């Protein structure tokens, strides 16, 4: 049911800080070629104001993990994001941000869509939730969790097969992201 995908990632520079690709689909796709169906990544925003990379044809979902940021999409909307807050927007929009943070990104192309949910649970507590994507992932951002007697630590990306009810326990205070991907 739960399978560890990986825990080590390549970090690259972008104009506002660094970005870390966590997963890209299909296998062999490359972000620079824009030949992916979806991509999961984290990014650090290390300067007070920055302009996001223009990504026409890409649907973006962004969640703040640490810190806070204000996203402004010229001609559309502005949204203030704090921990686990989400904004969805077209990658082709002119997007600027204010504030320093670490964020989690889901980028989808074509018919692919998805959603992100963030959770924080306290030590020795249990959490149960349903995932309903065709591909589902848990990304541990802090603490450690146990799923089916296996313990996962920060940076672990765990794939959950198809639709399932997930039961996990926090070994210590834990933060994690659930990414559900539809029509990959």
Would you mind describing this structure in some detail?
- The protein folds into 2 domains: 8-109, Jelly Rolls, CATH 2.60.120; 113-182, Jelly Rolls.
- The strands form 4 sheets. A 6-stranded antiparallel sheet has the order 2-3-4-11-6-9, with no helix packed on it. It has a 5-stranded antiparallel sheet with strand order 1-17-14-19-12, with no helix packed on it.
- It has 184 residues and is mainly β.
- It contains no helices and 19 strands.
- 0% of the residues lie in helices and 64% in strands.
Spatial ordering of strands, largest sheet: 2-3-4-11-6-9
Q: Quote the beta fraction.
A: over 45%
Helix/strand class: mainly beta
CATH class of the largest domain: Mainly Beta
The overall pLDDT average reads 92
CA distance, first residue to last residue: 19 Å
Count the DSSP helices: 0
Structure, briefly:
By secondary structure, the chain is mostly beta strands.
Topology:
Layout: E1 2-6, E2 11-14, E3 17-25, E4 38-45, E5 49-51, E6 58-67, E7 69-73, E8 77-81, E9 86-90, E10 95-98, E11 101-109, E12 113-121, E13 126-131, E14 135-142, E15 145-147, E16 150-152, E17 157-161, E18 164-170, E19 174-182
Antiparallel strand pairs: 1-17, 2-3, 3-4, 4-11, 5-10, 6-9, 6-11, 7-8, 7-10, 12-19, 13-18, 14-17, 14-19, 15-16, 15-18
């Amino acid at each position: 049911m739960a399978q560890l995908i990986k825990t080590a990632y390549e970090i690259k520079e972008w104009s506002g800080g660094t970005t870390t690709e966590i997963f890209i689909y299909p296998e062999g796709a490359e972000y620079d070629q824009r030949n992916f169906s979806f991509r999961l990544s984290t990014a650090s925003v290390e300067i007070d104001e920055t302009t996001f990379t223009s990504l026409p044809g890409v649907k973006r979902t962004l969640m703040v993990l640490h810190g806070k940021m204000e996203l402004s999409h010229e001609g559309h909307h502005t949204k203030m994001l704090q921990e686990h807050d989400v904004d969805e927007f077209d990658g082709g929009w002119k997007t600027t941000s204010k504030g320093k943070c670490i964020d989690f990104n889901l980028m989808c192309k074509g018919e692919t869509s998805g959603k992100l949910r963030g959770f924080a649970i306290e030590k020795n507590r249990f959490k149960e939730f349903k995932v309903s994507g065709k591909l589902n992932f848990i990304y541990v951002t802090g603490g450690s969790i146990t799923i089916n007697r296996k313990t996962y630590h920060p940076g672990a990306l765990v794939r959950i097969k198809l639709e399932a009810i997930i039961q996990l326990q926090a070994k210590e205070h834990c933060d994690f992201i659930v990414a559900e991907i539809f029509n990959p």
